[in-house]
Amino acid sequence: MKWALSPQCRQARREAPRWYDWLLPVLLGVAALTAAPAFAAEFPLVPGQTVIGQLQSYIVKKGEVFGDIARRFDVGYTELVEANPGVDPWLVRPGTRVTIPSLFILPAAPHRGIVLNLAQYRLFYFPPGGRKVFTYPVGVGVIGWGTPFGTTRIVWKEPHPTWIPPASMRKVEPNLPLRVGPGPDNPLGDYALHLGWPRDLIHGTDRPDGVGRNVSHGCIHLYPEDIAQLFKLVSVGTLVRTVNEPVVAGWAGDRLYVMVHPTQKQVQEIDIAQPVTPDPARGVRELVQRIAGQYAGAVNWQAVDRAAAERTNMPVVVADIAAPVAQAQPEPPPGPRQAQPQPAPVLGQDFGREVQEAYARTLALQQHAPRTTAAPGPPIPLINGAAAQPPAADPPQYPYVDPAQSPEEAEQSFDRAMRMFERAEHLDDGR
Known about the structure:
Elements: H1 7-15, H2 19-34, E1 42-44, E2 51-53, E3 56-59, H3 66-72, H4 77-83, E4 97-100, E5 103-105, E6 113-117, E7 122-126, E8 132-137, E9 140-141, E10 150-159, H5 167-172, E11 191-195, E12 201-203, E13 214-216, E14 220-221, H6 224-233, E15 239-243, E16 247-252, E17 255-260, H7 264-271, H8 284-292, H9 301-310, E18 316-320, H10 353-367, E19 382-383, E20 386-387, H11 407-428
Parallel strand pairs: 6-15, 9-13, 12-14
Antiparallel strand pairs: 1-8, 2-5, 3-4, 6-7, 7-8, 10-11, 10-15, 11-12, 16-17, 17-18, 19-20
Helix pairs in contact: 2-3, 3-4, 10-11
């Protein structure tokens, strides 16, 4: 999977004159400065709600590039690139319909104050009362200059700030000025929120095209109009929490969505129009299983695995409990797990790891196979005409035959396991 320019576009860019490298950022900045935001950052919230907004589409006008479209709809630059693979973000043909990635899943953090999900390149502000949320795209630190994780508070609100480059930046860029006063060339923009972490701020920027990208030395950059609104909303003492949640999931009506965000390295590759290095996300199945709860049987696990592998940053519907399900194989109602016919007595986790170990080793020896074979589970329901895959079982703790164990020892282990199994059955029956 790649979110890069087409081979023809990349070749043309390599062959273009050197002015191409500086002219396009200039055009992006000019377009961004003239763009008027059209997408509201405020959403109402009800208790338990985790999904806000909706996907939109937009017809590109002559002269527009992704930088001003992203700012118009209050999304980050790389968010927009990811949502529109194959579209050159710098040379967008007028009339092109692009997808606006304006559906968001809230991170699994307390809905208090400011929550920054760095993996999502997005800030959420939950004002007192819990009935609404404001969200803004952000630019974050370049690789090696990350923002700390944890909690802090706003300790100072500074309008029209003066920027004094820290010593760490001077080591990298010794020609930086001693200070930059308020004005259009100030890297802090017009507003700055100072945190309990002295080196890191939440502030505006003189380069709006950097929002949604890896651009800072640890500070959080917002579009000028977004920081102006946030500056008015928050007060000194507001809680600020930074998290790193590359996988988020939540219900919206009858649909379960999952979003898997790219890594910081992948975002960098997207930004410079390079093929994205595969890096499947971990823990996606476990999160979806937990969020799905009693509806886990309706999850399309193939879609879950694709989302984990591709990390498109787009919301993926992985379950729709309102969709028709094949009548021939109805899903069992929620409740106690129903017994299924098994070709062999498979011991579950309820009987302890020792039983699993003994049974796995003995079965492997008996079948002369290198791995134990899982018994078939319940029927797989059809979701939108496609078979939904059940969650993958945890890998066996002892999948291979122990070469140090003789057949006699294996037989003794099996006998011990069966006695434990019979004892468990006896207790379960109440005898």
